[in-house]
Amino acid sequence: MKNPIYPSYVSNDININNTIILTGANMGGKSTLLRSICYNVILNQMGLGISIEDNNNDNRYYNDNNNICKVIDYEEYINNNINTINNNINTESNINNITNTMNNNYMSIFDKIYTRIGASDNLLEGISTFQNEMKECSTILNGITNRSLIIMDELGRGTSTVDGSAIAMSVINYISNTHSSRYNGNKIIRRPLLLFSTHYNNIIYKLLNNHNNTDSNDNTTTNNTINHTNHNNHTNTHINNIKPMYMKTLLNNNDIIFCYKLVDGVADSSLGIKVARLAGVDSKIIDRAEEILKQL
After folding, report:
1. Which residues does residue 262 pair with via DSSP β-bridges, in sequence order?
2. Three-state DSSP class for 250?
3. Predicted TM-score of the model (pTM)
4. CA–CA separation, 129 vs 68, rounded Å?
5. What residues are paired with 94 via a beta bridge?
6. What's the rounded Cα separation, in Å, for the pair 200 and 291?
7. How many domains does the chain have?
């Protein structure tokens, strides 16, 4: 994706395979990225050009100065070509490989786009910020189909860290596993796509480890191990239908450089104290906060 107006934009590639858990610093661009994806999906389904880059010059694509994207219902595409891939679909891993290939080349058609972004209460109805957040979450969970796009930005932040982490982890697990792609013997049933941003980095490792422990007892699955790669002090983990990614930042002493670049892995920190310094909070308070952080 690219910004069609701002000349020095930072383009980001994204391949949504069921669930992406997005972490990163405050002000790092997570919410902007999520909104950009929604905007491009809506523009695409309106039949308008979208802001992307590609090297393919196929004139069947939307074309904006040779920046193109093919629009196709990929569930229909796969099932129309089911005879050529039927022999290879016998595990969840193989289904994921096929849908990954399709996601790399096509933009899907969605029946619903659900967003849970921001935080606000409802004084007229006597609903607190957290209850309002949970009501919106309930609406999403009760309405999603295998053709839905779901965007959730920091779900669970309106309550305690423990409760919020538990709720966030449960919601991610429900959507990514209950609604995962499957093969019913005749065709692939497509999955909903979930993008979930959070500052609860600990839940990512728990989700991946729980998935790995479950799959280790399943003899039909061969590629469900977690790959840990140390890259700039970030852990790069990817297992089937859950993929962690983060918005890259660089530190120069107390200065933060926001790269606005989406990369694989899990962010080390949300850098909240450094962002508070950037916002002009008194240095004495910031210094004390850093001391307290080391003790926690």
Report:
1. 247
2. strand
3. 0.70
4. 41
5. none
6. 21
7. 1
Check whether 216 has a pLDDT greater than 60. Answer: no
Q: Which range of residues forms the domain containing residue 40?
A: 19-270
Q: Kindly state whether residue 125 falls inside one of the protein's structural domains.
A: yes
Is 3 inside any structural domain? no
> Could you tell me the pLDDT band of residue 80, with boundaries at 50, 70 and 90?
low
Does residue 161 sit within a domain?
A: yes
Q: How far apart are CA 154 and CA 156, in angstroms?
A: 6
Residue 11 falls inside a structural domain: no
Q: What angle do CA 104, 108, 111 make, to 5 degrees?
A: 160
- Tell me the longest C-alpha to C-alpha distance in the chain: 68
How far apart (Å, rounded) are the C-alpha atoms in residues 75 and 71? 12
CATH code (residue 120): 3.40.50.300
How many CB atoms within 10 Å of residue 10? 16
pLDDT in tens, 85-120: 455 544 455 555 555 554 445 567 788 889 888 878
Alpha-carbon dihedral angle through residues 160, 208, 112, 69, given to the nearest 10 degrees: 130
